[in-house]
Amino acid sequence: MYHEFFGLKEAPFRITPDTGFFFSGGERGAILQGLVYAIRQGEGIIKVTGEVGSGKTMLCWMLEQHLPDDIETVYLANPNVRPEDVLPSILAELELARLADASRAEHLRTLNDYLLARHDAGKQVVMFVEEAQGMTLDTLEEIRLLSNLETEREKLLQIVLFGQPELDVKLADPRIRQLRERITTAITLTPFTPDDIRAYLAFRLTTAGYRGPDLFDRRVVRKIAHASRGLTRRVNILADKSLLAAYTDNTRTILPRHIRVALRDSAFNDEANPPQRWLLPAIAMGVMVAVLAGFYWLSKPAAAPALLAPSKPTQTTPPPTSQSSPAVVTTKTSADPFEQRVAATHDWLMQQPADTYTIQLSLLHNPNEFAAYLREGSGLAQDQLRIFRSQAQGHPSWTVIYGSYPTRQAANRALLSLPEVVRKRHPYLRTAGGIRNETRQIQQVGEQS
């Protein structure tokens, strides 16, 4: 409903895992690489735990995509599988012939022969066990026994257990201590920090096609972080509902009240704030009125905003006739190096095609902070550092960007090669067209105030 309003090409906050929206921040990228390495080593059982909605399924799907071609994957995704059905389920996943009345020993021999053949061909087989916390101790023990399939030097079947924290409680049971002792790699998906969430929201919006200024400021992000407890599924739900609330308000600024509306409409808020039965009709009526009001305001024509330029601009050519081919605008030079950099950035932005990519490094609240940026160096090319005027929470600020790239792929490669001290600030991709839109919106707000 709100996609066109915010300039989105697709829904940015679906709760169904989509590997195209995988966010490598919050240590998720490092965890993914660590899992690939552990599987390649082929020793022991790997355990991955995390709260409901922390991104285990997304990580599992990404892991399958990032494994090399010589590693075959098999899924055991039914937590209610009985011990005697584990082997038949694996054989079915591998599309191996099996007799309905075959014994466990015959099933095991079929699996062992297949694994040996794959090993002789230089291949590996890894089994992903999902929702492991829901399995009985007997089923988990049956899975452990499969780790006994090995050659003199190597395991034939690598096992990765995915589960909620309850899995650790189950593994603490003395009756299954042998499985616990076989776990050589244990990874916990920790909740996102507020900084992680801010970068996550910006990344998903950009991936979905958004090219404007930040929609979620730090104050709003803190509220989302508190309500979501840092769990990605909850973050997605709150972000989606808050965008809808802003849409019905006919505003492109997400405010704390939009988060409150989103939280009130979320199931995971039931315990913290149980709704009174008599309030439900009133809430439903309020939402209906808000939506109808939103449609009314959206039907009103909006004035076209002007581009915000640095101080005292002098236009030397006609205004741009299209976003893809902007006209060149030059500005009067100033003796102040900072103002010179701002003016040069403005000229650069006006000359770039709308789909030129750059990397947003930081948001500054004081111009003097940029001088520190230049002094630090941080391994960045000084002539590629640019800065433009922006706003944060209604106050003047300055945004630092870096580089110029013709494609998203080139920009992504450059982002990944940034110095570690810079990447810790969670930089992300922007486009010249998106930045121009941001400055237009700021200019429009200034003219209305």
Automatic annotation (TrEMBL):
Region ranges (Disordered): 309-334
Pfam families linked: AAA_22 (PF13401)
A GO molecular function held by the record: ATP hydrolysis activity
InterPro entries: AAA_22, ExeA_AAA_ATPase_DNA-bind, P-loop_NTPase, SPOR-like_dom, SPOR-like_sf
Residue intervals of the SPOR domain: 351-431
Start-end of Low complexity biased regions: 322-331
Name of the protein described by the UniProt record: MSHA biogenesis protein MshM
